[in-house]
Amino acid sequence: MNRQQFGFIAGFAIATLWWAAGFLVAIAAVVAGLLGWAVAALVEGRWNASELLSRVSGSRMSGDRR
């Protein structure tokens, strides 16, 4: 399955969920899926948690240093 086919199936599933259960349920499912994807990326080592945290804290600090 290529990325276009996967994207179509994911979009169709979200639209079907929206139709069957409502907008908020569909949004909650998307958020849960994104969180699961992020956790899997961290576990697999595609993301470095300490690097992500330093970027987030660094961007907040740089905005306060006027």
Structure explained in plain terms:
The chain is mainly alpha-helical. It has one domain. The protein is 86% helix and 0% strand. The model has no long low-confidence stretch (mean pLDDT 86).
List strands and helices in order, with pairings.
Layout: H1 3-21, H2 23-44, H3 49-64
Helix pairs in contact: 1-2
Uncertain segments are none
Return the string of H and E elements.
HHH
Shape by Cα distribution: elongated
Q: Compute the number of strand runs.
A: 0
Provide a compact summary of the structure.
This protein is an all-alpha fold and 66 residues long.
Notable features of this structure?
66 residues; mainly alpha; 0% strand
